[in-house]
Amino acid sequence: MQDSTFWWRGGVIYQIYPRSFLDSNGDGIGDLPGITEKLDYVASLNVDGIWLSPFFTSPMLDFGYDISDYRDVDPMFGTLDDFKALLDRAHALGLKVMIDQVISHTSDQHPWFQESRQDRTNDKADWFVWADPKPDGTPPNNWLSIFGGSAWTFDSRRRQYYLHNFLASQPDVNFHHPEARQAQLDNLRFWLELGVDGFRLDTVNFYFHDTELRDNPPVPAGEAKTLGAPDTNPYTWQRHVYDLSRPENLDFLKELRALMDEFPGTTTVGEIGDDNPLERMAEYTAGGDKLHMAYGFDLLNEPHSPAYIREVIERFQRLAGDAWPCWALSNHDVVRSATRWGQDEDPVAYPKVALAMVLSLRGSVCLYQGEELGLPEAEVPFERIQDPYGKVLWPEFKGRDGCRTPMPWTQGPQGGFSSAEPWLPVDERHLPLAVANQQDDADSVLNATRALLAFRRQHPALIEGEITLVEVGEDLLGFIREADERAGGELLLCVFNLTGEPQETALPASLAETARPLEGPGFEAHLEASRLALPAYQAAFLALD
Questions:
Q1: pLDDT tens digits for 528-541?
Q2: Is residue 262 annotated as part of the catalytic site, yes or no?
Q3: Is 108 marked active-site?
Q4: 232-235-239 Cα angle (round to 5)
């Protein structure tokens, strides 16, 4: 039996985007009571916990990632009592609760920034990153905002620029200032004392900046750009040497871990948007004294060939040591995987095998709401676009609204999400994929997800086992998962055909001799002598004695 303190290690966390999960009060926006109402559904998926995207007090210019009060619930989502009720219900169902924490920047409406911008001598004067203009009045350096334009905005009161890696309304906290740093740790403590089980840490490598404010160099011609933004964004033209992933970050992560260790059984997963995300992921989670888990954008981008996925696994294994990854194929910031990877594939079979693959990797997994339904990316017309990121870079980049549209519960009006017109439109293509329609269909993506997650729970090798890649040809992906003796020493061979064509491979004699196909995950494969045949979009799970 796995120690419940380490529930997160190999755990599966269901990500909920509160605005779009369920509207309980008819205002067109999802809320905390709506989430509580659907927690039985979430538990039925066989996940271990939930991660809630921000629900804190905010002017909502970046939909909650611009926080003006870290310790309260925005009225559009409910009250602090509503959150406590959600927490109690989740725990009663055996679900852990993780919440987003966005501590690298605040809203410009936060009292800290309101005070800081008044003059250069107030108590919060240095809690944000301020710098004098160059002699010609231009910004202090060439750093760019991910959301477009300079990362600096001029403030006439102080006659200085302030740093914002995102919107101008999201000023960066100065983590070099010990009081500002401690204040953010105190905000985290508030939620830990309330009973949350962990945090997803937004932009976890953005906390510190280079105090000399040196210019970032350009990406050399022919070299890979960062995966942290679309390649149409000028942000990707720089090597982000000085504006993020600074060495001081490691010391802060140790301070953060010391806080988490005061609350046994809690965990952290950090979001890493970096020029070298796997390297950062390994660095930030190694040693047991920093983050518990981290994720990058390697599987949240467009490349998805077996060769590419093999290379990601190989590179992480080479760097990892004792580091622990958290994998995801979709989230609230990227095009849904059913479209991004499965655009030209079978819309039911492909999401199933893609989920089987990610649920078999060594690490923990985040499953984004609607991914268990095989939802494609929604089409949102320009006049309905809400995302400021999309408005700036339209039409080459349409923003993140297409993955944030309401969850379809029924095929009725608004997909059963709300009795009112929702904040983003429900895509007509989502209605036939609604939960109610898939619930009783044995072949649905929903029930395949439930079966896969139940299967994963039964096999220690899939939860915490080591991973070793196996050569199965360029059109297949194969690896062995091996549990240690403490977990029974289980050995599993996992092979995936992510293509629409039947594939065959010859297994090494040492594996074929003892390989035995397992029942339960709902896939079809044929093993005869040493030949393993997989029809289109199928997976094989074989026990090895």
A1: 989 999 999 999 99
A2: yes
A3: no
A4: 120
